[in-house]
Amino acid sequence: MNKLDLSVDLNGLLLKNPITVASGTFGFGREYADYIDLNNIGGISVKGLTLLPRKGNPAPRVIETPMGMINSVGLQNPGVDVFVEEEIPFLRQFDTKIIANINGNTVEDYCGIAERLSAADVDSLELNISCPNVKNGGMAFGTDPKMVAHVVSEVRRVAKKHLIVKLSPNVTNIGEIAKIAEANGADALSLINTLTGMAIDINTRKPLIANVIGGLSGPAVKPVAIKLVHDVYKAVQIPIIGMGGIMKWEDGIEFMLAGADAISIGTANFVNPKVTEEVLEGMTGYFNKNGICSPQEIKGGVTYQK
Amino acid sequence: MNKLDLSVDLNGLLLKNPITVASGTFGFGREYADYIDLNNIGGISVKGLTLLPRKGNPAPRVIETPMGMINSVGLQNPGVDVFVEEEIPFLRQFDTKIIANINGNTVEDYCGIAERLSAADVDSLELNISCPNVKNGGMAFGTDPKMVAHVVSEVRRVAKKHLIVKLSPNVTNIGEIAKIAEANGADALSLINTLTGMAIDINTRKPLIANVIGGLSGPAVKPVAIKLVHDVYKAVQIPIIGMGGIMKWEDGIEFMLAGADAISIGTANFVNPKVTEEVLEGMTGYFNKNGICSPQEIKGGVTYQK
Amino acid sequence: MSFVGNLEVLKNEVINEEVFALTLEAHEADIKAGQFYNFKTSDIVYPLLRRPISVALVEDGKIIFYIQKKGTGTQLLSNLKAGDEVNVIGPLGNGFDFTGIKKPLVVGGGIGVAPMMEAARQLKESGHEAVKVLLGYREEPYGIDVFEKITSDIAIASERAEGYHKGYVTALLEEVLDAAVYDGVFVCGPHVMLKAVAAICKAKGVKSHLLMEEKMACGIGACLVCTCKIQKEGESDFKNLRTCKEGPVFPGEEVLFDE
Amino acid sequence: MSFVGNLEVLKNEVINEEVFALTLEAHEADIKAGQFYNFKTSDIVYPLLRRPISVALVEDGKIIFYIQKKGTGTQLLSNLKAGDEVNVIGPLGNGFDFTGIKKPLVVGGGIGVAPMMEAARQLKESGHEAVKVLLGYREEPYGIDVFEKITSDIAIASERAEGYHKGYVTALLEEVLDAAVYDGVFVCGPHVMLKAVAAICKAKGVKSHLLMEEKMACGIGACLVCTCKIQKEGESDFKNLRTCKEGPVFPGEEVLFDE
Ligand SMILES: Cc1cc2nc3c(=O)[nH]c(=O)nc-3n(C[C@H](O)[C@H](O)[C@H](O)COP(=O)(O)OP(=O)(O)OC[C@H]3O[C@@H](n4cnc5c(N)ncnc54)[C@H](O)[C@@H]3O)c2cc1C
Ligand SMILES: Cc1cc2nc3c(=O)[nH]c(=O)nc-3n(C[C@H](O)[C@H](O)[C@H](O)COP(=O)(O)OP(=O)(O)OC[C@H]3O[C@@H](n4cnc5c(N)ncnc54)[C@H](O)[C@@H]3O)c2cc1C
Ligand SMILES: Cc1cc2nc3c(=O)[nH]c(=O)nc-3n(C[C@H](O)[C@H](O)[C@H](O)COP(=O)(O)O)c2cc1C
Ligand SMILES: Cc1cc2nc3c(=O)[nH]c(=O)nc-3n(C[C@H](O)[C@H](O)[C@H](O)COP(=O)(O)O)c2cc1C
Ligand code: FES
Ligand code: FES
What we know:
heterotetramer, A: alpha/beta, TIM Barrel, four-stranded antiparallel beta sheet, 8 helices, 30% helix, C: alpha/beta, Elongation Factor Tu (Ef-tu), domain 3, Rossmann fold, Dihydroorotate dehydrogenase B (pyrk subunit), domain 3, seven-stranded antiparallel beta sheet, seven-stranded mixed beta sheet, 5 helices, 20% helix, binds flavin-adenine dinucleotide, binds flavin mononucleotide, binds FE2/S2 (inorganic) cluster
């Protein structure tokens, strides 16, 4: 019997195991270090970074919805410089990959932060293309094939790091967008970012999120995420980090069967700060029970006729 | 104090109250007639009809997901002729509007059924553009602006009835699609149809829906539906029937504040066959309590700066 | 029209590690064996859909359900205590049709043994003394005491427990059908068992009546998700019928088991 | 690091129509008044997010929470019975800082009265005899008995109930601040009350310490949804701080109430 090796190779980014945490849900790891051993996570996608510090949006920034939550933090973060000086040294104490989630409102912003981080000690850049493009009426970069091609190729040009492109689910044809990201130099893809959602207080008649709309995450979106991961799996050759509503190890396996090489846990951390370790344990058990030697063996393993 | 008049005018289709039921969730009304008085519903959108009878998809056709369900019935229906002969006479016993939900895989199919029903005793046609276009690689009509323009204008040409176009949520820019439907002759719009979703059994590694993918409905999708209804409200002048996860009267009010003139209840009927009457009662109470004389007074009543 | 509303829990009894017997106060209704109730498993909105559970036994003033813990819904039902209320719709479905049956055979497997209690009871009530009952289990049998009050002619198979016919209930079925003539086999059990029973009965020329399971949403015939492929004798094609409405009991000869 | 895990319910007491007092077994922890626990309100996955509840009182071996029924989460907590277990994370947040305080004033309004019990108790424990406590209610007061065991100097306002100062607790506050000099006002209550208290204290030159509420997701400082606008003295701009981590207690002078 072969031995299980949990590591997964995301086209150059080698994770010790397929469990990562999703950007914006894990801060810079500090808070969770009290609850779990960060050495047990394959990689940490840190809070979305911008070139300059950002205050983020006014409150309320969150509302619970049926088996989900809408958030609109507005990319509050200390800026890339503080991240490099204060957070990287902290994270480097642990044997886990640092994935820097980068954000911008112009292609120049994105390139600026990618350049800055190319000179820093991070393992991968995760290009969040769900940000609004201020030069294009605020439409998210990730929803327009042309903008995707442009921003990915420009960032690729300056990024001297492994590059993940994080896809928005709010599109008609995610396979097409995925192919464009791949063609323009993405080493891997991650998805899904949040679905756009809204909720209204019927007494005050105001939106329950100060920013009016926000991003829906949590178990509610899992069926959509599985479908989109499978679409992307059929469209591209590069590795996929699957996420969206993962609460338990079974969900992690489901994402891998749909086509993911690794998974990312977001909202579930809020409910159970130890969820990553529990998912790792459960998935390991499944691999062992089913005689699987490498997580990537089950990638896209869902079977059906058609 | 003015008296509350519950009726809503959907650009020619006059509903006695803003509560309708969603296509595919209420059969042809027969089953629910045992549980509620169908006279209490503003309108019934019947099970999706096709020109010829359809067997639908193999089992399993349903799987529960967190606060939602995926279905893939595959438009099982007896065909438009049986509908006209057997179901219309049954429904006409009640004082409620008959909305015929029409489906096709080609523009000719859609036009054929629209013509047939133009000669029949129905109050409105609801054009479901989420069906795959067999002449275009199976891509849903409703996801491509050109196809939307084509199918809506063609159906409009032959349809001698009030015409609702039912929008798919699986698009990048629903406002654009809505405008196209409006420009091509839709009298009203209904949304959202189901989000595309998928689920996998990790033990058998098979999809939990025989058709692999299916439509996600229920409370899980409500935040997405509210957002999309609001987008469409900002984009068009014609009336909107809002739906997606309505479980209680508060949800109905939320949809109206987002921009709906009327609402439609789907999945909730499965959980509580009396939900329509309960929602009607609750919404009526809200209108009275808030001194609202007509439901359409609160259409789009959500307030925010921007 | 079926009853929709709350019924009081009179008792909730642990049968074994997996199965519990939930006793509800009866409401006024004529319940046919093989019919089911659709349970709201919690007071809150989650789990979203109802759970269909067959009637296992009707006693004066009581309806008893045997429920196997599978997921959250059945787990929540197992937590109910005497005095609690539970929201149900029922009775639903067609139920077994015993009309004209002279010599019935009752077959149950696994949790599918439960609805056969009421089947046996109703057969006895309508004059069938000592109905023959075949029961199959994976492990230790349950519910035998209930059947013993109804009939003396019980044969039991178990895949693993000692002291019973070792193996599947289908082996018993073949023996029994070889030994005597029955004009109706009434069955509930797992999918594979139903399929095997249908084939055996067909081969031996006996009509089987299968209580089929299919995932449901509305339970009342409106949503069409609970489809069962039925091909009637002499017809050239199949129909997709509703398990909750035309079923859950279908003629074994007509069911197309195609996975 | 905070405790994460199950605690046993020792008691669940109805206080009035809306409020109940939930007593849990204590775990080893140093709890500061004003800190909170984040409760998983059911064994199943719904409701999804935890619910933050302030510590109302720490007694030997017990932690007591006063909880107002609002929605599903608090409703589920109200159903807990002695012997049940509940999953919590805590204690969380900064809590009140009483360091160097000579003459404290304790103010609570509505359900915000609850965390001020422990505030008063800890002040007494650290040597403040007869702490002055001002309490405001809409209807009939609750919890007075608890405060009476801690201090003799209690003033109570109610908007509707008879036998108390008619009106808002802020009126009492103005009187009290005019009558004597305090060096710290510790407050919890509804948003409007906190805003009014902060303004009054600022006007009278007394530092106020506000226990703020904001919707939360993680409760441990990771998600940034629980933002509170804070402008420190002398700084030209505000910062968005985390209510769950830098708070929930913030200096009244620094909070920007802008809606
Ligand atoms: C007509 C009929 C009669 C039944 N009678 C009984 C009975 O007497 N005793 C008993 O223990 N069980 C019975 N079942 C099966 C029972 O309904 C399922 O075990 C139960 O729904 C599982 O719910 P869960 O939340 O515990 O499990 P989960 O697996 O979490 O359920 C997830 C979803 O799948 C559905 N589901 C899962 N398994 C089944 C199934 N086998 N059939 C239908 N839907 C399913 C659930 O309704 C739910 O929507 C019957 C099913 C049908 C269709
Ligand atoms: C630091 C802190 C301490 C608190 N202490 C207490 C206390 O001691 N006693 C008490 O009764 N209540 C307290 N609350 C308020 C309590 O958390 C909410 O009333 C509760 O979360 C409502 O949950 P629900 O499911 O019953 O209501 P729902 O309205 O159904 O909740 C829906 C969502 O909104 C959130 N939410 C609703 N109201 C609030 C609120 N006011 N603050 C934060 N989140 C909210 C819930 O967490 C949930 O995500 C405190 C809140 C905070 C932030
Ligand atoms: C509070 C919050 C903040 C988030 N911030 C970011 C972010 O800064 N950058 C990003 O790419 N994704 C962000 N996301 C999206 C998550 O990384 C993830 O894609 C999404 O939440 C789906 O996974 P989940 O359902 O497991 O949470 C955020 C999500 C949440 C809930
Ligand atoms: C079982 C089922 C069948 C459906 N069939 C149709 C259909 O035939 N035509 C159609 O336009 N929409 C169909 N729908 C979509 C619903 O009409 C509705 O748009 C959707 O379910 C969202 O509303 P809900 O969340 O209240 O169910 C179906 C939905 C369900 C759950
Ligand atoms: S479950 Fe809806 S038709 Fe059977
Ligand atoms: S609730 Fe997550 S940072 Fe405060």
